[in-house]
Structure formats: structure tokens, C-alpha cells
Amino acid sequence: MTMSLRRFIRHLFTTVWSARRAFPKPALKTIERNIQECEQTHNGQIRFVVEHSLDLVELLRGMTARDRAIELFAQLHIWDTEHNNGVLIYLLLADRRVEILADRGVHARVGPSGWEPIGREMEQAFRKGDFELGVVRGIRAVCEHLQRHYPSGDARPRELPNRPVVL
User: Fold this and answer.
1) Which one of 37, 42, 44, 165 is at 20 to 30 Å from 156 when CA atoms are compared?
2) What does the DSSP 8-state code read for residue 51?
């Protein structure tokens, strides 16, 4: 079985119900609360998105989790914060792959070497079935970068919703 066929089968059988099992309502509330608490300690913006799988056309095009994260980064206007300090934590559940994308302001200060270890640590938790814990730890790690580079100062309105997005 080729790797692409395995991936196709994983995406075929990873449904919205899979996402709901991994992230039931109480877990989503915990994630939302952690984003909210975290954002009180800095002036950055965090969004968490979990997508159960890609559709057939995206798979046939060879879309990666990173490609999809870039699309969602734009669609959810994470790039549109006043201080260019938005961060997307994206999980493609079928691939168990995390991508963390930051707007240019944050990215210039943290870079890929700051985000990649966070994503890999989250993926390790997911392999153990610890979805909620993996996301909460990821949020807190992202939060540490944002506290360092965007310390809390003048009260700024929350530009992005804290509620997780489940696609």
C-alpha cells in the first residue's frame, strides 16, 4: 500500500465525528478558556482550528497540512490584526499533523525554529490520544513566545475570537 493510498484511506475514514470524539464540547470549552486566559497576559492573538480531513480534490492535488493552514490563515483573517501578531494553531486530524503559522510581525521575532518544536510536541500528545492536553500545552507554549514579544500593555480589544474552530 503506497503512502498516498494510506493517506487517502485515513482521510476517507476520519470524519467530523472523529473530531467530535477527539474534541468533545467540554474540551473545546477548556481550549477556549485557555486561549482567553493566555491572551490576558500578552497582546497577541491566537486561533485554534481542527479539521477532520481534506476532501478528495484537495488530496488528489497533494495538499499538505501546511498548505491548508495557509488557506485558513487567510480565510479566518488571522493576518488582519492591527499589530501583525496573529497565530494560527492548525490540526489536520487525519494526518495528526500540526502547523503553527504566525503573522509577519510575530514570525519575524520567533521564526520556524520557535514554532516547530511546539507542533511536534503536540503531535506526540495526539499519538497517545491526549488531544485536549496536547492543545492546551501548545497554546501555553505559543503564549510564552507572545508574552516575550508582545507583552501586555495598553488594553487592546481582542481582534480574533477565542472559540476553537472545528471543520
Assistant:
1) 165
2) E
